[in-house]
## 1
Amino acid sequence: MNKSHKVVIGLTGGIGSGKSTITAMFADLGIDIVDADIVARMVVMPKSEALKQISQHFGAQFIQSDGHLNRASLRSRIFSNEQDKTWLNNLLHPLIRQRMIKEIDQSTSSYCLFVAPLLIENNLQGIVNRIIVIDITEKEQIERTFLRDPSSRDEVRRIIASQISRTERLHHADDIIDNNKTDLAEVNKQVIILDQSYRKLAMK
Ligand code: ATP
């Protein structure tokens, strides 16, 4: 459980489950959002201390000419080398965690929504008070991801296989948003009900 006074609600779900869509609904209700993917990119911004250390450790070829990290090259380097992967995780994970906590502390809405695709996989349960899991069938997940970004269905299946299973994710849920229906007004109703319960929780 997080130690700051803020109520933090974690939102997670597999690829294409509707995290961005549902996050926008909470934002429309005036809730501050902290996005784990954005934080992870910010800690390696051009000129950052972490980027300097990556360049010293792996070589300047991992920094693009525009000063940004070459994520694709670094990903393939650590994919085949467990030691490199551990070194990078030891550098980045504490920085990412610190920055997430700082952003959560700076939020001013009645509670804060912390959006993390890999909330459970990366053991981030400790920084939230409750976890919302967005639930969707695998068939729908593949179709929607494919429609948004026509990569191959096999590629989408591969990413789903690398994430925890639908059953295991649901096992960690305090609250569930059913995003199978295509009627977004119905999904928004679920968001409004949860928002009201979190506002009450934040007042306690
Ligand atoms: P990713 O993990 O890939 O970033 P995500 O979990 O953020 O995805 P979204 O981008 O919100 O998911 O949704 C995936 C696609 O499905 C988008 O094109 C979105 O418009 C669509 N979508 C989301 N919810 C619904 C819904 N209830 N009905 C129909 N389409 C939906």
## 2
Amino acid sequence: MEEQIQNLKNQALAQIISSETPEDLESLRVTYLGRNGHINKIVEKIPTLELQQRAAIGRMVNDVRVAVEEALRSQYIDLTTQQKTEWFDPTVPGIIPKIGHLHLITQAIEEISEIFQRIGFVRVRYPEVEWDWFAFEALNMPKNHPARDEWETFFVDTPSHLRYGQMVLTPHTSSGQPREMQRVKVPPIRMINIAKTYRRQFDQTHAPMFHQFEGLVIDKGINITHLKGTIDHFARQFYGPGAVSRIRPFHFRFTEPSFEVDFSCVHCMGKGCKFCKSGWHEVGGAGMVHPNVLRAGGIDPKKYTGFAFGWGVERTLLLKPGVNINDIRTLYGTDLRYLKQF
Ligand code: PHE
């Protein structure tokens, strides 16, 4: 008898656990717990048993009833709330989600900003869609001046501004010079302006959109040694302790005197190698701010002098060891095999 009851319980629980719908559960409930169900059949036999057996069998049957009721209830919850999902093992090590990172140009912009901010420069961003006046006229390049041709400018087809002239996509961050002078009004000025710039050019070493950074320092008694020291400081910070800069006479309308700036090659430290040939890489322009530019910005050139420099973020970045690629367009591509390395 005991064995029969035990088997009944096992059979009931097995059927309940493998049932798939609430309707199945209902018919199992009737089969086991119903008035004519298996459990009642046993209960009906109890009075026929020997007196000593009755209490023990009664308790056993009752346990089975409780177990079956409990199993029906929990299976019903599983079926109706669909909690019966795959088995989850919390001890299995997790899968680390992939985390992206900033693009290497953004990283370079941040690094450049920090280098200059540490020596007191203020990071600004001036408009990428700019007026002619800021990009040229205020920089000592009157209308129709041939020097303008060097900045292969995109013009925006909108009506001209009465005072500031045509709208352009700024071809260099030097447009930030008169803007910063107007903003600060009274020197000292220590500006680092990093922005997108645009020129009509597209080949291995030029993209129509690129980034420039522009430094501008104006105060009493500023001279070329301050310019050279600042550029050298940048070279050491960005390329490593051994890097130096070189300035060569050049011509810009907005600086006098003007220079082109070279950095020593990081591979050969200026000796000459297959990357640089001469030991140097040209990066950009610099010079002492022209008095006419100070005047356009509302600053008295008799009281103040200043220096400015400006060049491409991409070019500066590509000279770093490890970044070496021979086509600047790779930087703007979507080849993750390249981009993920940085
Ligand atoms: N704006 C110049 C260019 O794009 C570079 C430059 C900046 C030169 C500041 C002198 C001073 O070529």
